[in-house]
What we know:
By secondary structure, the protein is mainly alpha-helical. It has helices at 10-13, 40-62, 65-88, 94-115, 122-141, 159-165, 168-184, 189-212. It contains 8 helices and no strands. Helix 2 runs antiparallel to helix 3 (65-88), helix 2 (40-62) packs parallel to helix 4 and helix 4 packs antiparallel against helix 5 (122-141). The N and C termini lie far apart (51 Å).
Amino acid sequence: MAHQTAPRSTADLSPRRPGLPARCGVRGCGCEDPRQLRNAANAVTVLRTLASLALVTVAAVQHSWPWLLAAYLVYWIGDSADGNIARWRNQETRFGAVFDVVCDRINCVSCALVFLQFVDAPWPIAVFLFQFVVVDLPLTLLPMRWPVLSPNYFHLIDPLAYTLNWHVVAKVTNTTLLITLLVVLPDHQWVALVAASTVLVIKVWSLGRVLRLTVPKDTPHVPQGAAARA
């Protein structure tokens, strides 16, 4: 009877690339990072950021609502496009994830400030900007402490934090809910303020939760499970 060798692990079956660890076979693991700066996904991020900034500048100078709407649409559609392109073309990188997060804040803050020219809602906008820049920015960068490609794969570490913050529904709600409420209900700004405050509370709680998670120091890649909680 022929001798049968033991099956190899997924990492053993995956090809090795020069300068990179062996692939572990877990989608979203940091070892899948091709470490490419020049790719289609990052190019889209640059283009949508610059285009939205140009449109929002025109909106501010001409006091034009259609131009501001165009700036928002370029930002929102471009933000979705660069991530989808990265996934479709297997170009997801940790650099691209951080770059996208920073560009999101540039576009969002510029659009929100110009939005105040059209809707006098300083308190809802102030709460939103505090949440999005002061709280959500470090929260979104914290997943990079783990060997994952981006926060989009934080479900490998903590499913609840991922669902509340980086699930597609949570991300869309965070970037569009406030503006939608202020446009649809301009005479009831308290609704937008309550919504923005609720999101702020969720973000602060999530930040505390993620900070309490233990980062394994001796694990070269992410296993299919959750990290140990402190």
